[in-house]
Amino acid sequence: MSTSTTERDLPAAGGGRQAQSPGDARRPLLSRSRLDPRERMAAGTFMAPAVLLVVAFLILPFVWTIYRSFFSDSRTSPFSWFDNYSRFASDPALSRSVQNTLMWVAGTVVLPFVLGLAIAVMTNATRWSRAARLCVVLPYALSGAAVAVVWNFMLTTDGAVNQVLTNLHMGSLAHGWLLTWPGNTIVMILANAWQATGVAVILFLVGLQSIPPETLEAGALDGAGSWQQFRYIVLPQLRPVSIIVIGMSLVNGLKSFDLIWVLTQGGPGRATETLAVSMYNETFLELRPGVGAAIAVVLTVIVLAASWLYLRRQLDVKGE
Q: Closest Cα partner for 84 from 255, 303, 278?
């Protein structure tokens, strides 16, 4: 009887069914689901609204902007080829706008990253960490226009900064902070960093609190000091958060508008315009939509190229 039982339990050598792995069991189901036209139709029905919204509000406007950028704003010669793009080399205002945009990108990426990381590390385990975080994060809850109003009160010729300097007998340092370039662009970048540092602090705090304490304890047992632990243990584990912070700061710096417009409206003499402000100024104030469309295309290319280069570098480093 034991022999017959064993023979029933053992699979047949020739025609018996062989055991299937989980991957083999799922493969026929996946192939059938991919070939099922009803499921394809259902998936297409659910995706159609999102695809239509993306096409209607992103792709079609961008295609129209590219098309409009090749037309001049005069009725005599509407098609102008690359004349609108050549203004970047011939128009001093647009050349200064590109220069200001690069300054904004550098300042709005470096300052929030460095300040946010430093404040997050210093307030991660201190007694007054909650109050310090509130003071730093609170400006992020304000709109860009509200931040501009606050800094306009401080930076005008008779504003709070000059009055404090005068009361401290340092009146020689007081001047019109928003009247001369590049000082006006630099103080606006500082105002933007004052607001944008809050979200960087929040993200870095989340990253710091997700680091396993065992790694820091192991580093301390191996004789690593505070700086060595921060450099070789904390920073590598903050790489995903750093990618998010730098990416957000990069995009926000390139599209900054409300703070600049409320503080200076691009002046004096269009000296503080960035590409976002120049696009608005050329399209709606100077009534040159062709030039505005060309600026929009250039700004989009810069945003996409900067984002692609940064993400490619980060992904290559992560892949290594």
A: 278
For 245-275, b/e burial (b = at least 16 CB within 10 A) is bbbbbbebbbbbebbbbbbbebeeebbbbbb
C-alpha–C-alpha distance, residues 128 and 130, integer Å: 6
- pLDDT tens by residue, 88-139: 888 899 999 999 999 998 999 999 999 999 988 888 876 667 777 788 888 8
Residue with tokens 């109003």: 149
Which backbone phi and psi does 82 adopt, to 5 degrees?
A: -105, 25
SS3 content of the chain, % helix, strand, coil (to 5): 75, 0, 25
Which is nearest to 154 in space by CA: 171, 178, 134, 131? 178
User: Percentage of the chain with pLDDT > 90?
Assistant: 28
Radius of gyration, alpha carbons of the chain = 29
Residue 107 CB contacts under 8 Å (≥ 6 apart), including other chains: 186, 189, 190, 192, 193, 253
Q: Cβ of 119: how many Cβ atoms within 10 Å?
A: 22
Contacts of 250 (CB under 8 A, 6+ apart): 105, 108, 109, 303, 306, 307, 310
What is the token pair recorded at 39?
């499921």
By C-alpha distance, which of 262, 260, 290, 263 is closest to 275?
260
Q: Is the pTM of this model over 0.85?
A: no
Distance CA 146, CA 152 (A): 10
The whole-angstrom separation of Cα 255 and Cα 272 is: 14
Average of per-residue pLDDT across 233-250? 88
